[in-house]
Amino acid sequence: MTKEKFIVTASQMREIEARIFTAGMPVAALMEKVGGLIFQRLQAIISPGKCVGILVGPGHNGGDALVVARELHFRGYQVWIYQPFSKLKELTSQHFQYTQSLKIPCYQEISQLPSYDFLIDGLFGFGLEREITDSIAAAVNYFNNKNQPIISIDIPSGLHTDTGEVLGTAIQATYTFCLGLWKQGLLQEQALPYIGQAELIDFDIPLADIQAVIGDIPKIKRITQTTALSTLPLPRPLITHKYKQGHLLLICGSRRYAGGAILTGLGARASGVGMLSIAVPESLKMLLVSQLPEALIIGCPETETGAIASVQLPENIDLNSFTAIACGPGLTKDNISIIPEIIQCECPLILDADALNILAQIGTIPRLKQRKSATVLTPHTGEFKRLFPNIDHTDRIKAIQTAAQESGAIVLLKGARTAISNPQGNVWINPESTPALARGGSGDVLTGLLGGLLAQIMNKEILIEDIVATAAWWHSQAGILAAQTRTELGVDAFTLTQYLMPVLKK
Ligand SMILES: NC(=O)C1=CN([C@@H]2O[C@H](COP(=O)(O)OP(=O)(O)OC[C@H]3O[C@@H](n4cnc5c(N)ncnc54)[C@H](O)[C@@H]3O)[C@@H](O)[C@H]2O)[C@H](O)CC1
Ligand SMILES: [K+]
């Protein structure tokens, strides 16, 4: 059972480790085990004979680094240690003493330091308590400016374990080997420039100890491939028909933003939804038909500026004929009257882009409180602040928990680390993305994909918020895959839609 989905704070990690020690695991033995696992992983990155600098802090992060230093030394690497602290924790001090007996060179001044190929950062882990200052800060900045690869143990030194904020200064790691369980700070956007490529080094923490501290259903989860794929409507039942695979209504587009409707439709197509209806202004109807021949395109009366004047559905079809509705991409704010009408629908409703801007104008919370079925809001930061102007936006996770709780909606806040909260405050964080997605139109694709997935779950016991997390994961994985083959400059929104399927093939 992988531990990848758990996220812990420093105090939770301390509690979990205390349980392990109380159960009888000697601290020194755990440090030896962890150091050995780190060393094993390093051998795949640093070729033999290379010169490795080891930064040693006063606590057990430093202890881990000293175990690594010893093992690298015995395996023929050229190792030196930078250890500027006068007082070390007992276990760290013993390991330090042994490296000195082995004649591994140790320096206290950065001016004396030899050159190196790699640096192991064992200054601070989850025990960092205050800003890094003075000579330590100078050393961190010195190493950052050398532009040589740095591997941080547990967390880049200087980052706050829980919030990811930089305390004074922080190591800019090339790799971060997070130990045991993902630290919450590593999933915060502000930490991203410091983490580099992050991976988890599992040192067999018993599941019981994890659940004893963070509960059976953790409040904050990291979206993983396993959890995402488990909610996809795959494999399909053999006996089925198009209406059993959901019927999504998209309400989007305007003469000014016709492309938004197409991109949303293409996102919906990729979801595999059984039936897709797209309501657009009449003047866009033939364009959509040509781009999405399988969809039912509904031409609506339009305002003189070419926005949807009203959602006129065909005979004997009303808003409740659909198993999900998604509204907003390319809508413009020219006509706000359609939003109060759509909010009455009894199926899951996704509001994005201009639907959110209109909702903000007409009053987010009072309007949404009326809803009887699920609502998903998919703002980016700007839209989010307009929707919920009176909440504290300092901490993104707390902000979406408050917004979701106050509005009763599921809130997906887009960003480098998209975060989702349900009204009960359960949070999902998408741990991987790519700056390639920071382009007009990629949000439209997500709305269509998410709408199509929601339309398919209908009465299955899958949680709506799990599907929202899956859509965020799928969307970002398509961006990552596209960027791998086309660089981060090559992922326009249309291309993105073409990479959604290959993600599943992978
Ligand atoms: N608990 C274990 O046996 C294991 C822990 N793991 C590793 O150890 C660290 C956590 O160790 P801890 O000693 O609690 O804290 P740190 O090593 O992060 O060191 C903090 C140390 O430094 C002092 N300090 C804090 N802030 C500053 C500052 N700004 N300037 C100077 N000094 C500072 C503080 O007093 C502490 O003593 C964890 O990350 C793992 O790397 C192993 O993974 C498993 C065994
Ligand atoms: K570290």
Automatic annotation (TrEMBL):
Binding site for K(+): 61, 121, 157
Lineage per the UniProt record: Bacteria, Bacillati, Cyanobacteriota, Cyanophyceae, Nostocales
Residues at which AMP binds: 414-418, 443
Superkingdom assignment: Bacteria
PANTHER family in alphabetical order: ATP-DEPENDENT (S)-NAD(P)H-HYDRATE DEHYDRATASE (PTHR12592:SF0), ATP-DEPENDENT (S)-NAD(P)H-HYDRATE DEHYDRATASE FAMILY MEMBER (PTHR12592)
Matches recorded under PROSITE patterns: YJEF_C_2, YJEF_C_3, YJEF_N
CDD domains: YXKO-related (cd01171)
Gene3D superfamilies assigned: 3.40.1190.20, YjeF N-terminal domain
Keyword Isomerase (UniProt): yes
NCBIfam families: yjeF_cterm (TIGR00196), yjeF_nterm (TIGR00197)
Family (UniProt): In the N-terminal section; belongs to the NnrE/AIBP family. In the C-terminal section; belongs to the NnrD/CARKD family.
Cofactor note: Binds 1 potassium ion per subunit.
Sequence positions that bind (6S)-NADPHX: 60-64, 125-131, 154, 330, 380, 444
Function according to Swiss-Prot or TrEMBL: Bifunctional enzyme that catalyzes the epimerization of the S- and R-forms of NAD(P)HX and the dehydration of the S-form of NAD(P)HX at the expense of ADP, which is converted to AMP. This allows the repair of both epimers of NAD(P)HX, a damaged form of NAD(P)H that is a result of enzymatic or heat-dependent hydration. Catalyzes the epimerization of the S- and R-forms of NAD(P)HX, a damaged form of NAD(P)H that is a result of enzymatic or heat-dependent hydration. This is a prerequisite for the S-specific NAD(P)H-hydrate dehydratase to allow the repair of both epimers of NAD(P)HX.
Subunit structure, as described in the record: Homotetramer.
Name the record gives this protein: Bifunctional NAD(P)H-hydrate repair enzyme
Origin species: Dolichospermum heterosporum TAC447
Domain YjeF N-terminal, first and last residues per copy: 13-211
